[in-house]
Amino acid sequence: MIEAVGISKSFPVPDGNGVTTETAVLQAVSLTVGDGAFVSLVGPTGCGKSTFLEILAGLQAPSQGEVRINGQRVLEPLPATPDGMKAYRKRHRFLSPIANSLFRDKPRHDIAMIFQDYAVFPWMTARQNVRFILGLRGVPKGEREERARHYLSMVGLEEAVHSYPSRMSGGMRQRLALARAFSAEPGIILMDEPFAAVDAFTRERLQDDLLRIWETSGTTIVLATHDVGEAVCLSDEIYVFSPAPGAIRGRVPISISRPRRHQSTDVQQLKEQVLSHFSGA
């Protein structure tokens, strides 16, 4: 279970005249995501959705509040004093506890993150990309080949195992990102606009593939998206963020059965309900 309580985040912004002010990005965001749930965050550009996902992942610390996963704090809030900040940086020499464990001990595999910009290794083939993740997981060398092919087949890339990302379409590269993420068998996958750069037809196929894999994996997914229709078609519930500083303006549970089609009356009605929260109606 993911529990975010009172998450606020501010960044220092210099004005060019030697004066620095704090700009708020998130303001007192609280939500709970149950195990195995599919939850979406929607809101306008700059409302803090991506920042919030990075805080959930432990890639950056909140200014206030805390995130707990299965009762364990992900990252403590940033200190408010210079001395406190020095001590904090000394404790967290790398980006986060996740990065600390990756470089110093062993990698954490309970959280994976999928980005909009096809975060795969361009110098590796599809098979090598997945094998690399399996190696980080500690999967024995003798098992990596079969399991890499399994996850690539799961996302429809069984004919592209030897292809490099530069020779793949955008949709294929994002399928590879899905295969890499699910191959780590994480408890949680955080997705930041993963399908924004592909055409509408490919996007719907990727959504269908994601749902099919999610339904069999038991993984918890938190998706940040600008596409309200995408959120309605995929999610168990939707949180609507206000413009910056991002705060939760509304929560919309989705109870209609899957599969859901964008053109259906139920989906259109729920889209209007989500948009009414955003518009303040």
Give short descriptive properties of this protein.
281 residues, alpha/beta, four-stranded antiparallel beta sheet
Radius of gyration: 20 Å
Shape: globular
Low-confidence spans: 94-109
Oligomeric status? single chain
- Alpha plus pi helix count: 9
Helix content, binned percent:
25-40%
Textual characterization of the structure:
By secondary structure, this protein is α/β, with parallel strands linked by helices. The longest helix is centred in the C-terminal third of the chain and has 18 residues, at 200-217. It has helices spanning 49-57, 82-91, 97-104, 126-137, 141-154, 170-183, 200-217, 228-234, 265-279, and strands at 2-14, 20-33, 38-42, 64-69, 72-73, 111-114, 188-192, 220-225, 237-241, 248-253. 38% of the residues lie in helices and 23% in strands. The chain has a six-stranded mixed beta sheet, sandwiched between helices.
What does this entry show, briefly?
Helix content is 38%, strand content 23%. The protein is α/β, with parallel strands linked by helices.
SSE map:
Blueprint: E1 2-14, E2 20-33, E3 38-42, H1 49-57, E4 64-69, E5 72-73, H2 82-91, H3 97-104, E6 111-114, H4 126-137, H5 141-154, H6 170-183, E7 188-192, H7 200-217, E8 220-225, H8 228-234, E9 237-241, E10 248-253, H9 265-279
Parallel strand pairs: 3-8, 3-9, 6-7, 7-8
Antiparallel strand pairs: 1-2, 1-4, 4-5, 9-10
